[in-house]
Amino acid sequence: MVKVLLSILLVLVVMISIMGKTQKAAVKKERRVPQTLSKGWGDQLIWAQTYEEALFWARSKNKPLMVIFHLDDCPHSQALKKAFAEDEKIQKLADENFVLLNLVHETTDKHLSPDGFYVPRIVFVDPSMVVRADITGRYSNRKYAYEPSDIKLLLSNMERAIKLVKTEL
Amino acid sequence: MVKVLLSILLVLVVMISIMGKTQKAAVKKERRVPQTLSKGWGDQLIWAQTYEEALFWARSKNKPLMVIFHLDDCPHSQALKKAFAEDEKIQKLADENFVLLNLVHETTDKHLSPDGFYVPRIVFVDPSMVVRADITGRYSNRKYAYEPSDIKLLLSNMERAIKLVKTEL
User: Dihedral of the CA atoms B123, B45, B166, B58 (nearest 10)?
Assistant: First the structure.
């Protein structure tokens, strides 16, 4: 009899402990993950928060600015983001030679949308604050769009943006 | 002899393993902590990235917008941030009733600096996109500044910003 009671007690204790753990997990799940400025485009990179801040850094560091327009619920943006974040050469070049800004919202500066407001869209801006509308991707209808397969073109466009700053000094 | 050799081997293995760990630690230390949008003002809150985005959310959610201007290397900003992040009532009210934006850089909208560009500075904006220059702190020379000791005044100003939206509907 005592044995039966003891085993019931044991089962209860185990159940309570399991329930406690489940509840803890549920509470933890409710806590939000802090939003990052990188939004997945490279957690190790340093990102400007706003266009004004990015322009300020571009001028003071004399580095070209790379503005990435994207959206969380756009599969093309997500695919390009993955390719961008996983490409070591791009991440290194971005880290060392660019001022970086990624935005899920348009700015009030229409120069950043030379051919419309689509995403994903990557626009380079010279430290002299001139938008480099001449650095384009592969698609004539959306000049500043890139697909994950265009990642090498993006890399060479980044190299071009750096070279243009240096030669124009 | 074999014993001596074995013990030397053991010492070598231990040394290599320790060296490996030290190197790993050094590499890890170099990795940057991802930047958060909250910048310490409340990791659990949802922050807009730019003023444009914040205005969009304020209008679409019909909630007042709270813009916090601050600087990382300003001790007054740091002190207010600590008080703001640790005050549960403020965090709850901010989470439930406000669109939130914190900026370390000025915007191009002069309405957000009714009496100058100092930090810390907290400006409320109505969902109708009107800056509430009438919601001020305790100091006549810097109307939108708050000290950590003014946290209750800030809370009542937040409540006022909510009430003004509702009564003006």
Answer: 70
Locate the chain B residue with the closest alpha carbon to A41: B34
Using the beta-carbon criterion (under 8 Å), do A38 and B35 form an inter-chain contact? yes
Hey, how many other C-beta atoms are within 10 angstroms of the C-beta on B141?
8
User: Whose structure tokens read 């003071």?
Assistant: A60
Q: Least CA distance to B102: which residue of chain A?
A: A49
Mutate which: B32, B50, B69, vs A, most A CBs within 10 A: B50
* Predicted TM-score (pTM) above 0.90: no
pLDDT tens by residue, A114-126:
999 999 999 999 9
Q: What is the pLDDT of residue B17?
A: 62
Single-letter code of the amino acid located at B165: V
How large is the ipTM?
0.77
Position A120: which residue type? P
- A97: closest CA of chain B, how far (Å): 17
Name the amino acid, one letter, at A145: A
pLDDT digits (tens, 9 = 90+) for B109-151: 999 999 999 999 999 999 999 999 999 999 999 999 999 999 9
Is residue B37 within 8 A of residue B46, CB to CB? The reply is no
User: Which residues in A13-37 are b (16+ Cβ under 10 Å) and which e?
Assistant: eeeeeeeeeeeeeeeeeeeeebbbb
Asked if the Cβ–Cβ distance from A34 to B43 is below 8 Å, we say yes
Does B49 contact A107 at a Cβ distance shorter than 8 Å? Answer: no
Largest alpha-carbon pair distance within chain B?
93
What are the pLDDT digits (tens) for A126-159?
999 999 999 999 999 999 999 999 999 999 999 9
Percent of chain A with pLDDT over 90: 79
CB-count exposure of residue B120 (10 Å: 0-12, 13-18, 19+): buried
CB contact under 8 A, B36 and A35: yes
Which helix (H) or strand (E) segment holds residue B91: the answer is helix B88-97
- Residue B18 has a pLDDT of 57
Q: For residues A111 and B129, give the distance between their C-alpha atoms in angstroms, rounded to a whole number.
A: 24
